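Why predict the complex rather than its parts? Because the way molecules touch one another can change local conformation, and only a joint prediction can capture that. The input here totals 448 residues.
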Amino acid sequence: MALKNQYLIDLLQTVKKRNPGEPEFIQAVTEVFETLQPVVEKRPDLVKAGVLDRLVEPERQIMFRVPWVDDNGNVQVNRGFRVQFNSAIGPYKGGIRLHPSVYLGIIKFLGFEQVFKNSLTTLPMGGAKGGSDFDPKGKSDAEVMRFCQSFMTELCKHIGADCDVPAGDIGTGGREIGFMFGQYKRLRNEFTGVLTGKGLTYGGSLARTEATGYGLCYFTKEMLAANGKSFEGKTVVISGSGNVAIYATEKATSFGAKVVALSDSNGYIYDKNGVDLACIKQLKEVERKRIKEYISTHPTAEYHEGCSGIWTIPCDIALPCATQNEINKESAEALVKNGCFAVAEGANMPSTPEAIEVYLKNGLLYGPAKAANAGGVATSGLEMSQNSERLSWTFEEVDKKLHDIMVSIFKACDSAAKEYGMAGNYMAGANIAGFLKVAEAMKAQGCV
Ligand code: NDP
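Output of the joint prediction:
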């Protein structure tokens, strides 16, 4: 979709000039601007209030040194980030990514997306994101702990249960959240819901671990049903084999689909009989091993080096759950050629703009990340509620609330797309519905 509105063209130029060397952030802003054109034309009051001009500039960006000592006694230095993007509708909320590819531009794109996603959940949460270029892979538990403690020693000055509540993301699972929570508690001498994704023994919510993957499948099920389709009997390809991929596999399978492929950053497995999820959980959640180990116990399955080949496997539904820009134009074309009719995103921004164009041109059902993977942060919001009332809800209660939120997100995307003349374009619907709530709140609160 080309950008035709002059105000948005000029504003995008300003964003590009002000944020050099941050292509992922520019990509995220461009996608949102393209779909907001009809809103800008219909709502001059929001333009006059400078809502978009303010929305593309984070409220606060924090960068800091994270020194720690490795097991050999050597000093290591990483860089830490927290970008508090927008607090118009609630305290800042968004995960912490630990991966060597992390730099300011990645955290900004994720924080920007988070603003719209959190708004779609209907819960009162603003948008933020944080992280570090630290790589937990290959580090001992003691090294991970020393890093997390050092990271939190600085981060604790900027967060709080009513101010900014971080959570997990790539590289940040239960182990890392535990170390960070312990350090926060020690430094501030307070036991509050300052992080989500906590362990069940110290304030975590049941179903938070499952939430993003389950929520992705709840959203996808609604999208399929609205178009006369279902998971039943379908072949599904899922990338990644981390938190989101594992629980998407579990839920899609329970909906009657067969998941035939999973991956990690080295390669992918193809098991035409359907992947053995218990084995994947053991390898990834317990032993922290590479996915290629799968074939040592499943000799009829195949392992292939490299990540992009997974999209050449014939499937009906594709659920990218690894990382940004993992599906490019060629991969999208391969999916279409092999008969795939739906793509729903568990990862953040996994499809390049060219790939999205291929989906839309070929009439694929496309569930964008902001909407489809919002179940994780929605359940984090439910964890915050439980922490505030010092109560724990049952798995069934949380799962039911998650399900209802995902259904309402799909409906919001569907009806916003219809209202603005783009029926069936759930990406436009997600951007518009997410934007409007934040925009109204920003306008009401004046020029801040
Ligand atoms: P995990 O760290 O648990 O798993 C990430 C998976 O993706 C791993 O299999 C990893 O492989 C693979 N991966 C990571 N980076 C790359 C890369 N550059 N190329 C190929 N594969 C890669 O993370 P999550 O499952 O939590 O997150 C996955 C995606 O979902 C991310 O985009 C995240 O932002 C998004 N998300 C997560 C939420 C959550 O609640 N966890 C909520 C909403 C979105 P390897 O082990 O080899 O690194």
